[in-house]
């Protein structure tokens, strides 16, 4: 029998959705089968925390659990006459009633459903959703990729990561969840984009900081600039300041139409690591003869 999902994730019953998500990510990373090959205890722990997050990560399921309408495994706890709950013990449903003939009730339920499937055959219940997460690199999110995902019930499945996938995006695979009397639930796969050392995403655009030397900023020049597909040559206009944006068309993330957006290079005018005497003398004469206050532009 599943344990209390709050205890499984190590969170309080008043925890926010973000706190629950962070707790699951931390535990899933720690106990994922890929990080613990052959460790049955870690595999079982991963299954339990996945089941717990499947319940608490879904707002409606969490509400039902807190209200006592479903148990820790997501199975419904139906209320009977006299307020007595139907429970599942060892897979069989039992009931507690006060001053009510149980046989009459079962007969009533059976006749209402035409007698099909026994006294409770008419109640249909969809299987629970299962959850997993997959970490991908930015380049994989741009080009799309395939990954084999391990689910909490021990199954693995090859999943296609679409082009332009976003961090936090959830893929829903219909009918790939837990089995139920009225059909299987779905598999929900959260995509996590690993941070990139050079590029960051702003909408569908990618943004990067591009260091340029003082001479190239003043005089203009050509510099090598990185892109997700490899370096390209970029022309720096004369008189460029830090913060100036150069746009590389079609080098960003794919959008919903399939077309790629742009890569924005934000220039950062950078001094040499060691300032020599000639540069110091030039700066001193410049400051004396041609003073200016760039802060006044802010």
Number of strands: 13
Count of all domains = 3
The strand line-up of the biggest sheet is: 8-9-13-12
As residue ranges, the low-confidence spans are 80-123
Q: Give the CATH superfamily of the largest domain.
A: DnaJ domain
CATH topology of the largest domain: Helix Hairpins
H-E string: HHHHEEHEHEEEEEEHEEEEH
CATH architecture of the largest domain: Orthogonal Bundle
Level-1 CATH class name of the largest domain: Mainly Alpha
Give the termini separation: 63 Å
Radius of gyration: 30 Å
Description:
The strands form five sheets. A four-stranded mixed beta sheet has the order 8-9-13-12. It has helices at 5-9, 17-31, 40-56, 59-66, 102-112, 138-143, 214-219, 277-289; strands at 87-89, 92-94, 130-136, 145-150, 156-161, 170-173, 187-193, 200-202, 205-213, 221-225, 232-236, 245-248, 263-270. The model is unreliable at 80-123 (pLDDT under 50). It folds into three domains: 5-112, Orthogonal Bundle (Helix Hairpins); 130-193, Urease metallochaperone UreE, N-terminal domain (HSP40/DNAj peptide-binding domain); 200-297, HSP40/DNAj peptide-binding domain (Sandwich). Strand 8 (200-202) and strand 9 form a beta hairpin. By secondary structure, it is α+β, with helices and mostly antiparallel strands. The protein is elongated and about 85 Å long. It contains eight helices and 13 strands.
């Amino acid at each position: 029998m599943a344990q209390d999902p709050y205890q499984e994730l190590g969170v309080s019953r008043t925890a926010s959705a973000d706190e629950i998500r962070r707790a699951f990510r931390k535990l899933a990373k720690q106990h994922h089968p890929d990080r613990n090959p052959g460790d049955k205890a870690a595999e079982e722990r991963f299954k339990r925390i996945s089941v717990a997050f499947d319940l608490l990560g879904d707002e409606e399921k969490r509400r039902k659990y807190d209200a006592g309408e479903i148990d820790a495994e997501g199975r419904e706890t139906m209320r009977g006459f006299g307020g007595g709950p139907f429970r599942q013990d060892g897979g069989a449903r039992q009931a507690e009633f006060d001053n009510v003939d149980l046989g009459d009730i079962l007969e009533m339920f059976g006749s209402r459903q035409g007698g099909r499937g026994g006294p409770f055959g008419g109640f249909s219940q969809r299987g629970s959703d299962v959850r997993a997460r997959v970490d991908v690199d930015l380049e994989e999110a741009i080009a799309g990729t395939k990954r084999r995902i391990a689910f909490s019930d021990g199954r693995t499945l090859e999943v296609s990561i679409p082009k332009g996938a976003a961090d936090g995006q959830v893929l829903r695979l219909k009918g790939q969840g837990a089995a139920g009397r009225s059909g299987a639930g779905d598999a929900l796969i959260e995509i996590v984009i690993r941070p990139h050392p050079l590029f960051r995403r702003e909408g569908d655009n990618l943004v990067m900081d591009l260091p340029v030397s003082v001479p190239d900023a003043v005089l203009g020049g050509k510099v090598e600039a990185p892109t997700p597909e490899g370096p390209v040559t970029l022309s720096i206009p004369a008189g460029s300041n830090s913060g100036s944006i150069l746009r590389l068309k079609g080098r960003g993330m794919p959008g919903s139409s399939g077309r790629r957006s742009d890569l924005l290079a934000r220039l950062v005018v950078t001094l040499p690591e060691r300032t020599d005497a000639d540069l110091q003398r030039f700066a001193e004469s410049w400051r004396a003869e041609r003073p200016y206050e760039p802060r006044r532009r802010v």
